[in-house]
Amino acid sequence: QVQLVESGGGLVQPGGSLGLSCAASGSIFRSYAMGWYRQAPGKQRELVASITNGGSTNYADSVKGRFTISRDNGEKRVYLQMNSLKPEDTAVYYCNLRNVRVGLTQDYWGQGTQVTVSS
Fold first, then answer.
1. What CA–CA distance (Å, rounded) separates 15 from 81?
2. For residue 62, which phi and psi values (nearest 5 degrees)?
3. Is residue 30 left, alpha or beta, with left meaning phi > 0 and alpha meaning psi from -120 to 50?
4. Can you tell me whether residue 11 is helix, strand or coil?
5. How far apart are CA 119 and CA 115, in angstroms?
6. Which pLDDT tens digits describe the chain residue by residue (119 residues)?
7. What radius of gyration, in Å, describes the C-alpha atoms of the chain?
8. How far is Cα 9 from Cα 18, in angstroms, rounded to an integer?
9. Rounded to an integer, what distance in angstroms lies between the CA atom of residue 108 and that of residue 101?
10. Dihedral over alpha carbons 103, 71, 40, 111 (to 10 degrees)
């Protein structure tokens, strides 16, 4: 099992910035990806950003240029820096860890943290 503990989130005005952090522990494979997803009311959960062991990143088009994902492999942490926030970024943000092994992938989720962008 893998445990993910998120921190950060909260209320911010449009145009503001916020940072999220997620710490992973437990049975983590040598190869794993970490990322952030979000789910707004009435919508499906969607990928925000992800990052591999090697540092390759992937972003949703809606956040490119505004959000930055990074990770600390030694500490098994992933971060999401969110700038120029918009009301449409309002959602519950979930940390994800994906264990990867030949023929096997395992997904684990954090408990979620609320991000609200409002004036």
1. 13
2. -70, -15
3. alpha
4. strand
5. 13
6. 999 999 999 999 999 999 999 999 988 888 889 999 999 999 999 999 999 988 999 999 999 999 999 999 888 999 999 999 999 999 999 999 999 888 888 999 999 999 999 99
7. 14
8. 7
9. 15
10. 80
**Rounded Cα distance, 93 and 89, in Å:** 10
For residue 1, count other CB atoms closer than 10 A to its CB. Answer: 7
Tell me which residue of 17, 42, 20, 41 sits closest to 90, measured CA to CA: 41
The conformation of residue 88, written as its DSSP 8-state character, comes to G
Give, in degrees to the nearest 5, the angle at Cα 118 between 13 and 5: 80
The answer to whether 112 and 8 have CB atoms below 8 angstroms apart is no
Judge contact between 74 and 61, C-beta under 8 A: no
Beta partners for residue 55, in sequence order: none
- List b or e across 35-57, with b for residues whose CB sees 16 or more CB atoms inside 10 angstroms: bbbbeeeeeeeeebbbbbeeeee
